[in-house]
Amino acid sequence: xxxxxxxxxxxxxxxxxxxxxxxxxxxxxxxxxxxxxxxxxxxxxxxxxxxxxxxxxxxxxxxxxxxxxxxxxxxxxxxxxxxxxxxxxxxxxxxxxxxxxxxxxxxxxxxxxxxxxxxxxxxxxxxxxxxxxxxxxxxxxxxxxxxxxxxxxxxxxxxxxxxxxxxxxxxxxxxxxxxxxxxxxxxxxxxxxxxxxxxxxxxxxxxxxxxxxxxxxxxxxxxxxxxxxxxxxxxxxxxxxxxxxxxxxxxxxxxxxxxxxxxxxxxxxxxxxxxxxxxxxxxxxxxxxxxxxxxxxxxxxxxxxxxxxxxxxxxxxxxxxxxxxxxxxxxxxxxxxxxxxxxxxxxxxxxxxxxxxxxxxxxxxxxxxxxxxxxxxxxxxxxxxxxxxxxxxxxxxxxxxxxxx
Length: 405
What we know:
Layout: E1 21-27, H1 31-44, E2 49-52, E3 68-69, H2 76-96, E4 107-111, H3 114-129, E5 135-137, H4 139-145, E6 161-165, E7 169-170, H5 173-186, E8 190-192, E9 197-203, E10 206-212, E11 215-224, H6 230-235, E12 244-255, E13 263-266, E14 271-275, E15 280-287, H7 299-312, E16 321-331, E17 338-341, E18 347-351, H8 361-374, H9 388-391
Parallel strand pairs: 1-2, 1-11, 2-8, 4-13, 11-18
Antiparallel strand pairs: 3-7, 4-6, 5-6, 9-10, 10-11, 12-15, 12-16, 13-14, 14-15, 17-18
Helix pairs in contact: 1-5, 1-8, 2-8
């Protein structure tokens, strides 16, 4: 399971002071913000760009997720952008010339009831129509892919089968962020940490800059990419977004020998498990029901999460929990993101990714950069406009989002 030791250079990017003005300011130095800045420079030749991060690069959700990558979403709109992202993942290490440890070990989505089976088989057919690799496996075939899973019919949530996407997998989240940051910096993008946006400068219905803890910075365009905090920043321009933020807790075990060869997800049991490159078991739970920005774990959630995991993997009973954490899941009413224009000219929105943010990183960076560069949505993110909550053209992905939100 452990890969080759990665040797990092002494310094991956510059640490510049903010300039007086930029053509584009990206608010949020997580994976989406860094990828957007990189593709603005690489694909569109826009290099007078700053990424503003209130803390340190990739210190938010990028460092607080379970790194699962897949594209087997139900609806055409979601499948389009996630599959575009997966194709970019497949060549990303070579493109960025940096080891992101992308491992295509496959993802199982378990079915525990007859209705689960019906829904899952429907999703497999929908995925195939969209050119996505998808298979339906019976319990024995599930066991062949993941030998340690319990397929006994006598448990509370018996495994009736699973969807399987062989090209799915995991990557090393901090390496992904560092790779994008290094590549964007090399193209001339300023990455400015410890720089919180405290206000938006709007004149005549158009954004002209941002107020920050390090002074006012002028901008031709401002691209918000701050996950759940996007709603906080957008409100500075008088825009109320249909966004709620919930804590999502996860944990890792002590280091183990290679025992878990794939990724297993269960919406009904509310757990998803993979084994990281170093050997830890990485497990995620469902979201907390209350709104908040807390990034800490809670014992009762972890206890329930471990009980669910032991239903599927009795083998884990002797493993020790090493640490827990909480990430922030920003959720829209239809469990799909908002990516596109805003009511303020020159101000763009990227938020509401729920549990799909990490896997979408290359794809949304590509499409969002196109949107910012051209002032109009890329065809793949056009369905995810803010206006859909007025027109009713929703993209309801609650069923394929892997955990309830």
